[in-house]
Specification:
The protein is an all-alpha fold and 374 residues long. The protein is 72% helix and 0% strand.
Amino acid sequence: MDVTILHFLIFFGPLFAVIISIGQLVQVRKGFVDYLFSLSFFGMGMWMFQISLYATGVFDSWSGIYYLITASIPFAFLVPPVMVLRYKWILSSVFQVKPRHLLLFLPAGIATLLLIVPLLLYDIPGPEGMYPGLPILTERFFQLPLYYKIVYTMLFLPNIYLVLFMSPHLVTMSMVWKNNYSLKFTKAARMGYLFALSIVVSNIILIFGCFFSFGLIKLAVLMANTATIMVYLVTKRNPDYLRLLQSETRKAHYEKSRIRGLNIEQIITRLNEIMEDEKAFADEELSLGDLAQELGISAHQLSEILNEKLNKNFKTFVNEYRIEEAKKLLLEEPGRSILSIGVAVGFNSNTTFCTVFSKHTGISPRQFRKNPAR
């Protein structure tokens, strides 16, 4: 790829992130998350600009480039906590900024002190000839004075900070990939998850790039740029994207929490007893609610147990018992009509019985009776 085009693509991302940030502020209907969204994208845009500066070397000839990159380091430390607060808002039913959240901004204060205090206490040589100091695993880096080694090390510490704080939220948000939710909401939520994942992955690549190669850093910036553009397109297609993501993630989290605290093993054991010993499946009007009531849990909890622990829905679970009982009766009572057996195991019509039987066994009840070993 032509170097000019590559540099354009790299610097386009930071500018576009800032434009998204401004666009979020000028919309008519705004809420707390919109301001967080705007702030996080503005910070990310400035942070990506800083990374682009030292990765491309486009402005190396400008004497003030070092000061610009160095001065932006504390601001880079502000981006991870803002993103964390935004995702905490998404994942929490009620979220308020509390005093303890200020601790998330402590690294920015520490970085500021590390940059300023040595300049006041020691005779630090000027920045001329000290740039660039990356990648770290190069001879050039080890030739730098200690102060500048610290400065260039702090360039990628915000990336580590972001990865460490965002990874737990990715685990929590992974529930949006479950298949039992509204298609419209799921698409928006999954795009949000992919964006968060791409940000974490691009930061991991960038960290490696700071140690080994500017090429990896450029790749990470291009990945982040692509993710930024995708978020913009999703927000245009779904103006309430942030609220959809919040709604979907909370709903998935709620579904996950329904069975917490239950003795799942004991419930499954009792469930099998009800089906095998009491033959509850033979009741053609058996419902999820009826079975859940017998177990002393809610219908939602039983549905979650069936899906999460047994990997089947209620209808499949009941029909499997019905078919097994039907196979037994077909062989033990050869003179009994197929219709009678179907009704006895819980089916309300011969057609339904034959259809479900064939689906589970691959053959009809009549064929099974003639050749059960088939």
